[in-house]
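User: tokens in, sequence out, please.
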């Protein structure tokens, strides 16, 4: 019921402006793919706390123990921070580690190394005051441009990953191919460092008040031969742009079966006992050499051999100008 009202609020807000609701089906997909059974779960831009709620529901559904995970988060908007605390409180979820403040300039979990990171950061933020953080320790793979926070968020997530940690997060499609202000070089460094595990292209009309094309990134420090198989020389690309069902004239959602198909494809590829096969138009395990030949562009359509005629290589902000977005996550 709480999720229903947040969704209605986001839809109403969308009629007049900039906030948008991250659909619950996308949050469930993120959780299903990274499977946060045990350890520390972190969201540095947690808004109303939906990532934490879905993580707890996942554990309950799969017979795990709720007290096997601990949650850490941060939210810069005081009103949204209180909403998150209330959301967690009515579900009996411990929220003492949900801090108030800007994760870039006043982040409260500096020493945290998380086992799982789930996040939906604001897209394409141009006023994140990056000029004040040029020497920040988090920029191990390159200084992000001051005009766009996408690669600052990505490196913030990586900085807080434990040695065997995994992060799953939403990004604007522009992050997959942009070469603006050094972003292409940062992406190349991340790829060559063996951190990029999987990219999922999402269908359109999932979000309530933005037409910015979106994707999912999965970044892992466990890509050699620890818990899962050695896949350090591969990246899995999944093109889910033709998935989803229309729930009204303007909005689409991923079905439970589609969420299961995407997650199971990832697990079959990642796990030691998985039986994975490339499927034309849907998924491809590409070598780093192949990615290099494609100029370190991570757009799934380039690899899976899709027949969809949607061009998603073009960087959104170059077509339409910078757009700052604040987000309300699914609860």
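Assistant: Sequence out:
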């Amino acid at each position: 019921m709480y999720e229903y009202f947040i969704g209605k609020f986001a839809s109403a807000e969308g009629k007049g402006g900039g906030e948008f609701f991250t659909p619950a089906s996308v949050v469930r997909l993120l959780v299903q793919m990274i499977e946060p059974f045990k350890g520390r779960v972190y969201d540095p831009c947690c808004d109303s706390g939906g990532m934490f709620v879905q993580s707890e529901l996942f554990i309950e559904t799969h017979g795990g123990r709720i007290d096997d995970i601990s949650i850490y988060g941060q939210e810069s908007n005081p009103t949204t921070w209180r909403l998150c605390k209330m959301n967690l409180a009515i579900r009996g979820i411990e929220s003492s580690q949900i801090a108030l403040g800007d994760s870039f300039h006043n982040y409260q979990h500096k020493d945290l190394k998380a086992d799982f990171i789930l996040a939906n950061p604001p897209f394409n933020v141009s006023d994140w005051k990056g000029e004040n953080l040029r020497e920040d320790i988090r920029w191990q793979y390159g200084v992000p441009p001051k005009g766009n926070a996408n690669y600052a968020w990505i490196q913030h997530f990586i900085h807080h990953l434990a040695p065997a940690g995994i992060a799953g997060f939403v990004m604007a499609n522009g992050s997959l191919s942009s070469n603006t202000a050094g972003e292409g070089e940062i992406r190349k460094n991340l790829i060559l460092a063996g951190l990029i595990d999987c990219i999922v292209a999402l269908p359109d009309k999932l979000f309530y008040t933005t037409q910015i094309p979106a994707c999912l990134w999965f970044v892992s420090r466990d890509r050699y031969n620890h818990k899962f198989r050695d896949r350090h020389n591969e990246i899995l690309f999944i093109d889910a742009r033709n998935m989803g069902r229309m729930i009204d004239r303007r909005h689409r959602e991923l079905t439970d079966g589609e969420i299961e198909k995407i997650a199971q494809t990832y697990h079959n590829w990642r796990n030691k006992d998985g039986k994975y096969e490339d499927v034309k138009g849907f998924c491809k395990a590409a070598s780093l050499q192949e990615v290099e030949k494609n100029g370190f562009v991570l757009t799934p359509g380039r690899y899976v051999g899709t027949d969809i005629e949607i061009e998603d290589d073009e960087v959104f902000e170059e077509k339409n100008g910078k757009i700052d977005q604040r987000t309300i996550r699914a609860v």
